[in-house]
Amino acid sequence: MPTGARQMRESFHVAYCFDKGYRQHFGAAVSSLLSNSKEVGVELIIHVVTDSLDPQLAMQLDEISNFYGVEIKKYQLSHDISEQINSLPPSPLLGYLSRAAYYRLWLADLLPAEVEKVLYLDSDTIVQKNLSELFAMPFDGSSILGVQDANHITWERMHGLKQYINSGVLLLNLDAWREKKLLDRCLQWVKEHPDRNFLADQCVINAALTDEIKLIPSQWNHYVEPAKPFDGNHTNYIIHYITKDKPWQAWYDPAQAKAYWYYLSNSPWRGAKAEQATTVEQLYRQADFSRKDGRLEEALELFDKIINLQAKSLSKDT
């Protein structure tokens, strides 16, 4: 290369899909990715797919772009795609799932044709390591790389499958998605099995595209669940807060939530407050964590709230 010539940089593409309710959490997720992905000769390009690209979000995305020196490409869903997504049946089991879960199915259509592959990440993930090793993994004829789901045995039986992946971390061969028209296969499966997409996009991907999936090691999508022991070791390269309980809730285990709040503080959503407990169960969990952490005064205040809430409930019953 001639002296002074610009060295070619390899481009890695990462996509996040979210609606207005998950903007803040995307902030923590993308901050973790960019904080742990600094590598000479590699360029990260972030693709953001959302339902509403208003001036506030555009400004926040520009702040991330400028702070980390990264290119962020923005995509607002067209009316046509929104109509297709809204016509899809919601999850019959998980009412908290947003229809934004379906956005990832359209990545091959939304991203430019020159983007051959993309890493899709949920907005409740935290990246703890440079992902070059993941980007370099071969597809070996498949179109999707993913990690076996935490409850894969149950869902394999439900759908008659030999494997079942979690859709929160997916390396997608977009060229193959386009060539094989995999979106059409997904939509056809939903049309034919409206009562079987129990986990929305996840069941669709697994059941409609089972022959296109290749498993990768679990450290690329390590599940964090409140009821299970937490292993935040950095050998788990991506941690994923599955279940309806999330680290931004005041009643979530502070040790498990620590990474989320750390990376959120490096985003435009810094200073955000935790979602407050409103039920007896939530207040009790928060109080118990406060007690274990030695914050006894806070724990007593929360137990008082529990007593008052229960007293109000009893008075209504009588």
What does this structure look like?
- The protein has 318 residues and is an alpha/beta fold.
- Helix content is 39%, strand content 16%.
- The protein is built from twelve helices and ten strands.
- β1, α1 and β2 form a beta-alpha-beta unit.
- α8 crosses α9.
Features:
318 residues, 16% strand, 10 strands, alpha/beta, three-stranded mixed β-sheet
Topology:
Elements: E1 10-18, H1 23-35, E2 42-50, H2 55-68, E3 71-76, H3 79-87, H4 107-110, E4 117-121, E5 125-127, H5 132-135, E6 144-146, H6 152-159, E7 169-173, H7 174-180, H8 182-192, H9 201-208, E8 213-215, E9 222-224, E10 238-241, H10 254-264, H11 280-292, H12 296-317
Parallel strand pairs: 1-2, 1-4, 2-3, 6-8, 9-10
Antiparallel strand pairs: 4-7, 5-10, 6-7
In short:
It is built from 12 helices and 10 strands. The protein is of the alpha/beta class.
